[in-house]
């Protein structure tokens, strides 16, 4: 088990999957860096939501697994799918699970302003 700070604990299986963590800071236009919300850690997955392009269900299932082991984290996490929801299976997976209280998704095109706002507000970006 790998522990990253107070909130993020990675399962041993994570070590078996090739992955890269690139430390970075999002810098946008002048004065656009936002103060992060203190009550929730925000994860963002940018791009249109299509299961055929990215495995959203596995990622969301991993969060469900974390919440089932420790329900406390459910109130500490926010997941933003930062693109148009274009997959009925992913939408149904979210709405029929505990994730409906944690996941934010968009039914329409996400404006550049909203995209930049959510990216700046996020603590972690996931690029599956």
Explain the overall architecture:
The protein has about 130 residues and is α/β, with parallel strands linked by helices. It has one domain (about 35-125). It has three helices and six strands; from the N terminus they run E-E-E-H-E-H-E-H-E. The chain has helices at about 55-70, 90-95, 110-120, and strands at about 1-5, 10, 40-45, 75-85, 105, 125. A four-stranded parallel sheet has the order 5-4-3-6, covered by helices on one side. The longest helix has 14 residues, at about 55-70. The radius of gyration is 15 Å and the shape is globular.
Name its key features.
alpha/beta; 128 residues; globular
Any idea how many domains? Answer: 1
The secondary-structure class comes to alpha/beta
Helix fraction bin? 25-40%
Distance between the termini: 21 Å
**What order do the helices and strands follow?**
EEEHEHEHE
The mean pLDDT is 80
Helix tally equals: 3
Strand order of the largest sheet: 5-4-3-6
Largest sheet: 4 strands, parallel
Low-confidence stretches at least 5 residues in length (pLDDT < 50)? 24-35
Q: Radius of gyration, rounded?
A: 15 Å
Q: Write down the overall geometry.
A: globular
- Number-wise, the strands total 6
Residue share in β-strands: 15-25%
Please specify the SSE layout and strand pairing.
Elements: E1 2-4, E2 8-10, E3 41-46, H1 56-69, E4 77-84, H2 88-95, E5 103-106, H3 112-121, E6 124-125
Parallel strand pairs: 3-4, 3-6, 4-5
Antiparallel strand pairs: 1-2
């Amino acid at each position: 088990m790998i522990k990253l700070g107070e909130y993020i604990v990675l399962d041993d299986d994570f070590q078996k999957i090739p992955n890269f963590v690139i430390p970075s800071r999002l810098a946008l236009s002048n004065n656009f860096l936002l103060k992060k919300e203190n009550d929730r850690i925000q994860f963002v997955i940018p791009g249109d939501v299509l299961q055929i392009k990215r495995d959203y269900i596995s990622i969301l299932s991993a969060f469900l697994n974390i919440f089932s082991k420790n329900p406390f984290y459910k109130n500490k996490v926010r997941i933003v799918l930062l693109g148009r929801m274009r997959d009925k299976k992913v939408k149904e997976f979210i709405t029929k699970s505990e994730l409906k209280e944690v996941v934010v998704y968009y039914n329409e095109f996400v404006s550049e302003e909203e995209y930049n706002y959510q990216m700046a507000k996020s603590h972690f970006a996931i690029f599956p």
